[in-house]
């Protein structure tokens, strides 16, 4: 009697844990007492991958200053090269300039990332507007560390439009 109670308790516990008893119910009804019980785990399903390893989490390096400075002169050259080549013969059309602003910004960001500057977050902005004898001021405000973070910008003009490209390099600790 006590072994039956213990077997039922073990079977309930195994069901809660995700395993099934291989002891058939017909064995219990026939009065057979086998004395042992084997289990099959649900992890034996075909969908289970034994070779799964969770991604490795690296410790913080706590490097609070960059190994190299942000190369503002090289980035200014990249901005001027992209703006000159993309906008040299363009006229101001609002829809076209909206797309050109996005495209030139992505090109500049890609070329700056190709420089492989470690641990700097790159933010690129390009403003394009109509040149019509008006005044315009563009400002930006950021919360940053003045010893590590910096920016580079370039202003382009032709007969019909102006463009201002800015790249911010924010040190990512």
Topology-level CATH name of the domain at 72-136 and 143-171: Ribosomal protein S3 C-terminal domain
Largest β sheet strand count, sense and barrel closure? 3 strands, antiparallel
| Uncertain stretches | 19-29
Helix content: 25-40%
Alpha-carbon distance between the termini?
A: 67 Å
CATH-level-4 superfamily name of the domain at 72-136 and 143-171 = Tctex-1
H-E string = HEHEHHEEE
Do you know the CATH architecture of the domain at 72-136 and 143-171?
2-Layer Sandwich
Structural overview:
- It is a single chain.
- The protein has 173 residues and is of the alpha+beta class.
- Helix content is 33%, strand content 21%.
- It has a domain of 94 residues: Tctex-1 (Ribosomal protein S3 C-terminal domain).
- It has a three-stranded antiparallel β-sheet with strand order 3-5-4. Strands 1-2 form a two-stranded antiparallel sheet.
- The radius of gyration is 33 Å and the shape is elongated.
- One of its GO terms (molecular function) is dynein intermediate chain binding.
- This is Tctex1 domain-containing protein 1-B.
Summarize the structure in short:
With 173 residues, this protein is an alpha+beta fold. It is 33% helix and 21% strand.
Topology:
Blueprint: H1 2-17, E1 19-21, H2 25-29, E2 39-41, H3 72-87, H4 94-113, E3 120-130, E4 150-157, E5 161-171
Antiparallel strand pairs: 1-2, 3-5, 4-5
Short key terms for the protein model shown above:
two-stranded antiparallel ribbon; elongated; three-stranded antiparallel beta sheet; alpha+beta
């Amino acid at each position: 009697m006590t072994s039956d109670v213990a077997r039922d308790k073990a079977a309930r516990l195994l069901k809660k844990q995700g395993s099934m008893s291989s002891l058939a119910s017909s064995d219990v009804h026939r009065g057979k007492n086998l004395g042992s019980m084997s289990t099959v785990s649900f992890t034996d399903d075909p969908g289970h991958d034994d070779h799964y390893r969770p991604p490795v989490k690296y410790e913080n390096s706590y490097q609070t200053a960059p190994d190299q400075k942000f190369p503002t002169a090289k980035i200014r050259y990249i901005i001027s090269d992209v703006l000159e080549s993309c906008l040299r013969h363009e006229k101001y059309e609002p829809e076209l300039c909206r797309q050109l602003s996005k495209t030139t910004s992505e090109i500049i960001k890609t070329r700056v990332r190709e420089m492989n500057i470690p641990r700097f977050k790159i933010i690129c902005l390009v403003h394009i507007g109509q040149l019509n004898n008006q005044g315009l001021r563009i400002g930006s405000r950021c919360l940053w560390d003045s010893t590590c973070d910096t920016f580079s910008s370039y202003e382009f003009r032709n007969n019909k439009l102006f463009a201002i490209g800015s790249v911010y390099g924010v040190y990512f600790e």
